[in-house]
Input
Amino acid sequence: MKKILSLFSATVLLLGLIVFSIQDVQARFSGGHSSSSSHSSSSHSYSGSSHSSSWSSHSSSYSSSSSSTGNISLVTFIILIIVVLFIIWIIYKNQPKTMIIRNPNNRFDESQLTIFKQHDANFSRIVFLDFVHLLYVKYYSYYGKKEFSYLTPYLSDSVKKDNMLDLLIGKQVIIIDEIVTNSVRLYSMSSTDTEEVIGVEIESNYSIHPAFYTQDTGKQHSRYVRTERWFFQRNKGLLSPAPETMQALSCPACGAAAHFTDTGECDSCRTVIIKGQQQWYVRDRFVLDQTLLNTGDLVSYSEEQGTNLPSLKSPTLVQEIAGFEKQRVIVWSDYWLTFKQQIVENYFLALNAAWTNHDLTKVRHLVSDRLYEANSFWMALYKQHQWNNRLDDLKIQDVSLIKIELDTYYETITVRIFASCFDYTEDNDHKIIAGSNKKRRAYTEYWTFARRAGVEKTENNFNINSCPQCGASADKMGQAAICDYCGSKISTGNFSWVLFLITQDENYLG
Amino acid sequence: MKKFTDADFQTQLGNVIAELEQASQIEIVVLIKQRSANYDDVPMGLAANLSLLTFSILFFIEMGIDDYIIYFATLAAFGLGLLIALALPFVQRLLVGKKRKLRNVEIMARALFQKGGLHHTSTQVGTLIYISLLEKMAYIVSDRGAQMAIPEQQWQIITSNLNNIFKTKNPPESLLKELTKCKETFKQYIPALENNINELPNDLRIDL
Output
């Protein structure tokens, strides 16, 4: 822009000079009689008269002898400026601009999942993504350690060997810890005559410390955000195992805890596990992006990007509602009203209040383990910097249904919540460092709720402050979301709805 | 005073890099360029502003000046501004904003890193130290492995020290000193393996 302005000022100036000189020359040429008058004024000025008088005499010579020529020059000058502005506009219009084009193909094709489920009725997206998350965390936690062999049946040889990780972790250059997965989503599903492949995109962040610990270097750590694409493969024609097997990384043959040798032999049943024969294994992994996590981003408030985007409702939503009605034997319109009030709105308000008050323990039983882990991390990061992100006077404007997914083990409902609040971040002295407590910020988010299929408890009887299993107060859930009164793990959705996923509107791909 | 283009300096630089790579697994490439962008608009802007200033002064000054003098003085001021900005690099450096300079240096550094294929080392430890003389700035682009191995604070210290070489009387000499100082850091955070293979040429020349 500066370049254009400089060019503009230079061009206008030159044009001005040209017009000025033309005007001047024309005034002189407009008749021999005026020439003498003009000349006399000039000579007059030379003789010591004031500059203004010189100009006034000059202009009088214009007005008396060439006012029409002066008008033409003025018009020419204006036209030239317009032409220059037009040229600049054309140049500016053609300047390369950074455009973010959202490829519609990036949206996971849900029909692939439908086809897939036709020959593996046990497949559950939630269970599979939990399995991916588990494997991802263990991969980085175990790399370079003896325990890494426990993952042998789940990793191809190329994934097991990473030159960079060998150097950094294997040679004890760095330690990776505090791995938090922000999102795990299906990316692709494909199959050949003999194999099935699922691509998954994982966004995570983790800390890296120098491996040699000293008082000084131990304090140095960097946090990175990373996006990876992992491809899982298994033989065609298999049925997915039950959630309990998928969530434990156990031996696919005997079910014992995963203790394998480097060759993939189970310590318990001595079976050599052939990859992909009974369970998914990671065929390839690719790092798409890795950037340093800038904590300054926590307090940078940019304009909401996706609030005005249309809702990405499932193309088969009507059929999904019909399927849900059939499975639950309910009337959808009645059910939706209750679900919206008892679950969506209550959860939304309770979770955001917990976030504002820096205390997720009271809502621990309402969220899945992964979501709790991710939110706890961000909350700790705010706390570490002595910042407090507040969402005051939160109001829900609307809730719309986006998708219903049913499988053998889980049922999920995704909604889009339209809300607004005073969103700001303050420091410990209550000084606002970002956002505003005077201007409301409208935003939308996609929330996905999950519940184990077959849970009979109705939403009307559900109280978010009680354990959904025993009814006792939900004040003793701990980090693991196990009720201290009845010993049940609540965050799996076995007893009631849990919030499984939150996706920002600009990132939601269906 | 040494110059960045001196053969003697080039040899010494090569030796320093070799020392660094012997002590550490890191793969270093140092690239020095005269400038990271053509700031064509700067001479033009200076010329335009200078001529506008001249024109305004001559126009409003309470003194009888011939029209032709106003015309030619304005043109002369334009030419002078153009000449000054083109002939004296420090004028360009002064007139270009710091943010813009930094952006251009970063763009050039990342482009050189990419075109030079520094991301092709097997352990992803390729690191480009880029020096841009006109802007008097240094920029480091490191591959994932090197980025992860050396803490961010250390990278910031190294970058800051490299930027400070332009505040010294003899920048080429200071560059060699600063690079030598990096040896301990690199060795500490990313020590050399037994079979340390040099995967990148030390005297890499890349033109965009």
